[in-house]
Amino acid sequence: MKTTKKFLLILLAVTLMFTVLPVVGLAAGADDPAACQVDGESMSFNQALAKAADGFATIVLQQDVTMSSLSFTGTGYYGGAGVIELNGKTLTITGGMSIGDNVSYLYFYGPGTVKMGSFTATGQQAHGLYFARGVNATVIGNVSAPNIPNNVGITLIQASGTGTNVTVNGNVSIGGNGFGVHAVWTKDEASITVKGSVSNSCAKFGYGVYAEGGKIAVGGNVMASGVQTYATRAENGGIVLVGGSVTQSGNDGIAVWSYSNATIHVDGNVAKSGGGGDGVLATYVGSVFVKGNVTTDVLSMGVRCSQGFVEVGGNVNAGLVAIQSTGSVIWVKGTISGTVYFVPAPQKFLISRSPSDDPKYTYMYKHAIDSSKVYEQLKNSKTAKIDLSKASVTIADAVWTGKQIKPTKFTYNGKAYSISANATSVKYGKNKDIGKGTITLTGKGDFTGTKTITFKIVPKKSSVSKIAVAKKQMKVTWKKVTAAQKITKYEVRYRVKGAAKWKTKAYAASASSATIKSLTKGKVYQVQVRSYKSVSGKKFYSAWSATKVSGKIK
Prior knowledge:
Number of strands: 51
Low-confidence stretches: 1-28, 344-369
CATH topology of the domain at 464-549: Immunoglobulin-like
CATH superfamily of the domain at 464-549: Immunoglobulins
Oligomer: single chain
């Protein structure tokens, strides 16, 4: 009997070892039959992905999903396609995600959170990551497409929409022989931060980073090579920050291109080689700031500017044309090596001196300086650790429950952050009574330092239960809050329906109704109620109740 049981256990282990799961790797939560919905039908995340692989599916998460890996390859006649609507939930892929052959697209729509170890595009029809509608996404490792096939286009990582924020802790890289290949692309008000470097070595036409609106911050270098490739480009008010250097090699390419009220900052050097094109190009009130040098070969221009602003902290060294300026402001703090062209000629005095000295270009210079302030904010918030001890951090008011209150989120710079995800240590105060609550956080990830944050604990909201009208008066009755809250008073406010100003009267904590007199005959009144508790001379107010409307005053 013992031998038989041992044999069965070994057989089961071997069977599990050689079982191949379709579409995704081993997962915790991905096989839950209520994990998501497709066309109103509940199913597991694995089942939903299989539907998407076979044609198309809109997958709506119903709970947080955690899985070890995700490999999406199309099986349908027209290829796989899908939209994952996060629905406020979190999708965690602890290992890597990859997209293989026969895939049309796989999009992530917010609000919600995506976390993954790495991403690789490997298919013959290469497709990357697309985040929109308020997704917060983090890739712990690298994002890559190592071998784009001939004439295939791809945007490796793209973000669009207000509130969409993507962080890649590693590098972003593209290789192969593609056409129309882009590494990093933002639209609207989206933001992408790459803490490593970005490289695009496609065959023809593509961007290293492209901020078509939104913000892109790269901690390392940006490189693009190939015919008509552009290492960095920004337009429509977009902002690009590069912590390292920018290089472009290949015919008719551009290293740094700012267009239409956009701004690009490069902390290192800019280099352009391979014949034809520009080291720096700024057009239509585009602004470029380069802290280092701009260097180009004999067939490329150093700085070309048309109705734009360029500031170079170092030297401009060009094999032929160093500067070509049309109606622009160019400030080179170092030396200029190469020919300089001006249209019209009187602009020559703008070279190698502060552009603010000439009032004719006040607007353009002001735009550039304003953009520089935005750059500093972006740099501080996206590439540097935020010291909690010095930062303005807040926690929203909490409503009394009678139990210890433990906040789960804090707000910095207008954005909410999870306490559990951004703090290594959390200490709560008593946080039970109405008044002031406290929490002490020690930061991790993008945060450092320790800070004690105070927040308000306020009474529960009451409600107006009845309004009885009489001659030039009305009796307002409200629902009392629990005695355990130990409030100090109630306040009732009222106004003629549609009027701008309210009148407010206070009543004892023991009261549950009040008669308000001297009202206008024939008028209808709006009424709200709230309570407050005085603690050490400070009042802590509940929220106002929903508005109740009276009948006509007699």
